[in-house]
């Protein structure tokens, strides 16, 4: 039996976009933890010095938001919830045992939850970050508003860190996921097993081109 050729999951621009978001997340999260916990002040040295961290942290945050926004407009249609996602969620005990459930499209229910939680967190981080951003915007807001924004920023940051940790764990758990974002291609058997509906859609498009 002839082995099927690999399927492209992500193009080069998509992969570059993803790793820009990942890099920005790492440096912003590390420096942010340095701001939040006095005992972790040394983490601000990720930007060289604490002074540079206070200047660059918000700029890298904006770059991260803008890069993820590109991903949002590219993938939001693939992350809409459907009936198969309900089946997936109801069978979470099988998922935990590494069984595939339902007719999954490009993304499963867990990946969709990560996607929407990430964009929600980033919107809160951007809005609250603008309010507390000195010396550019903070002077336009009252002290109570700034305090509220600091609280929102902190909670949203913790939420995003948890979401990304889940994302990383899931990517490591499902063999082949990391390879897809590094090389851009996945084996046809991988696509058929983990994302059967997406596999059929890709094959249908290939037939249309012939």
TrEMBL record:
<dbReference type="GO" id="GO:0022904">
    <property type="term" value="P:respiratory electron transport chain"/>
</dbReference>
<dbReference type="GO" id="GO:0009326">
    <property type="term" value="C:formate dehydrogenase complex"/>
</dbReference>
<keyword id="KW-1003">Cell membrane</keyword>
<dbReference type="InterPro" id="IPR006471">
    <property type="entry name" value="Formate_DH_gsu"/>
</dbReference>
<dbReference type="GO" id="GO:0009061">
    <property type="term" value="P:anaerobic respiration"/>
</dbReference>
<keyword id="KW-0408">Iron</keyword>
<comment type="similarity">
    <text>Belongs to the formate dehydrogenase gamma subunit family.</text>
</comment>
<dbReference type="GO" id="GO:0005886">
    <property type="term" value="C:plasma membrane"/>
</dbReference>
<dbReference type="GO" id="GO:0015944">
    <property type="term" value="P:formate oxidation"/>
</dbReference>
<dbReference type="Pfam" id="PF01292">
    <property type="entry name" value="Ni_hydr_CYTB"/>
</dbReference>
<keyword id="KW-0560">Oxidoreductase</keyword>
<dbReference type="InterPro" id="IPR011577">
    <property type="entry name" value="Cyt_b561_bac/Ni-Hgenase"/>
</dbReference>
<keyword id="KW-0813">Transport</keyword>
<keyword id="KW-0812">Transmembrane</keyword>
<feature type="transmembrane region" description="Helical">
    <location>
        <begin position="145"/>
        <end position="172"/>
    </location>
</feature>
<keyword id="KW-0472">Membrane</keyword>
<dbReference type="GO" id="GO:0036397">
    <property type="term" value="F:formate dehydrogenase (quinone) activity"/>
</dbReference>
<feature type="transmembrane region" description="Helical">
    <location>
        <begin position="55"/>
        <end position="76"/>
    </location>
</feature>
<dbReference type="InterPro" id="IPR051817">
    <property type="entry name" value="FDH_cytochrome_b556_subunit"/>
</dbReference>
<keyword id="KW-0479">Metal-binding</keyword>
<keyword id="KW-0349">Heme</keyword>
<feature type="transmembrane region" description="Helical">
    <location>
        <begin position="20"/>
        <end position="43"/>
    </location>
</feature>
<keyword id="KW-0249">Electron transport</keyword>
<dbReference type="GO" id="GO:0046872">
    <property type="term" value="F:metal ion binding"/>
</dbReference>
<dbReference type="GO" id="GO:0008863">
    <property type="term" value="F:formate dehydrogenase (NAD+) activity"/>
</dbReference>
<feature type="transmembrane region" description="Helical">
    <location>
        <begin position="113"/>
        <end position="133"/>
    </location>
</feature>
<dbReference type="GO" id="GO:0009055">
    <property type="term" value="F:electron transfer activity"/>
</dbReference>
<keyword id="KW-1133">Transmembrane helix</keyword>
<protein>
    <submittedName>
        <fullName>Formate dehydrogenase O gamma subunit</fullName>
        <ecNumber>1.2.1.2</ecNumber>
    </submittedName>
</protein>
<dbReference type="InterPro" id="IPR016174">
    <property type="entry name" value="Di-haem_cyt_TM"/>
</dbReference>
<feature type="domain" description="Cytochrome b561 bacterial/Ni-hydrogenase">
    <location>
        <begin position="9"/>
        <end position="184"/>
    </location>
</feature>
